[in-house]
Amino acid sequence: MILPRIKTIAFVTLTTISAGLLSSVSAKAACNDAAAEGVDWTDCRKRNLIITNSSLENATLVQSDFSSTDLSGSKITGADLTKANLLRASLTGVAGDGANFQNALGFRTLFEGASLKNANFTKAELHRSDFSDADLSGANLSKTELGRVNFNGAKLTDTNFEHANLARADFRGSIFEGPLPLQESFLFQTRIEGVDLSKAVGLAQWQVDMSCGNENTKLPEGITIPTTWPCEEED
Fold this sequence. Notes:
Layout: H1 2-31, E1 105-107, E2 125-127, E3 180-181, E4 200-201, H2 205-209
Parallel strand pairs: 1-2, 3-4
């Protein structure tokens, strides 16, 4: 009775291995697919490429490696870029409303002039990235690493920055109406000179005390201007 059992185990093992190999081959084949709406590039290596003005609406780009790749002008509306590698990638001028960047990894990533309304950046790491002139209305950047990020000229209406790291980020020239959620966000030397934060939600005195504002910065009722303002300009 032992021999038939061994044969059965061997058959199951070979079947499992074969299924895994077929899955791997299928994934590699998908990575060779051209950019197209709904394409599945999960875990694909797309580094150092020029994929400008491409149609990637509703594409599955989970854990794809786009480091140093130029995606500028592309349509990524509704695309899933969860845990994607965006180090030094260019997404300048992309149409990315509703895109999912949750847990994405970026550094000096360019989002200049991009449309990212209602996009999800929760827990993404985007140090030194550039969102200047981008539309982030309704976007979720809670718990996101945004150290030294440039928001000059960015539209931030209803953008959620709760629990985000905004150390040395630059909000000068940003545009928004109504409340701006900043509860528990880290504002160490965050540039808010001339910014109207009178309707900010969850903003506390300790946050303002470590930030960089001036006499033109407007604060919510009950919060006072720190004696450390204005900060010295960095070299």
